[in-house]
Amino acid sequence: MLADLIKNNRSYRRFYQNEEISHQTLINFINNTRFCPTARNQQVLVYRAVTEEKIRQVIFPFLNWAGYLKDWAGPPQGERPNGYIIIGVNNKRLLFKDEWLNADLGIACQTILLQAAEKNLGGCIIAAINKSEIKKALNISEDIELKVVIALGKPKLDVKIEEIDDEDDIKYYRNNGEHIVPKRKLDDILF
Ligand SMILES: Cc1cc2nc3c(=O)[nH]c(=O)nc-3n(C[C@H](O)[C@H](O)[C@H](O)COP(=O)(O)O)c2cc1C
Question: How many angstroms does the Cα of residue 99 sit away from the middle of ligand 1?
Fold first, then answer.
């Protein structure tokens, strides 16, 4: 059910690194994402699928994981993502630079992650990336402005949702190895 997929589609940051994802799987995710709505039908988002181990190693140091967890530097060797989808904007196709670009981006990210969830994969949108270093390392055209990297893999299922009251802290935290994500209650998001 779609509701289950949405709930299971948490941000996962630890993976079974020995479980490879095929390049074609990521290309299929991107292909389906082509059919997403996009403001003014501009379709300026462009994607690169990365599964090759050598390139994964190049990208990893340029990603910032879980900003609220000050004592965690990201997944250690053995728990790193098995693939990435890098998303950028092709500025050459950009007719209208407006606030809605980020809406396109969000829709695309969630569409990719829901497809991953359907295949018992999971991942994390990473916006805190070193864009210039990734562009340099992967020799990405100057026409492309990087936006996010989606890290993907077979997740270690260590994420739990916790319902919170309005005054409670929204910061996620770790408890006995579990990653706890506070979510507001339905009554608190209705107006
Ligand atoms: C636009 C966007 C940017 C994000 N950037 C990062 C990031 O740079 N690093 C990271 O570890 N998580 C990042 N996340 C993941 C969020 O921290 C995560 O969605 C949030 O903690 C809620 O957890 P959940 O996705 O399991 O509901 C990002 C999420 C979104 C939607």
Answer: 20
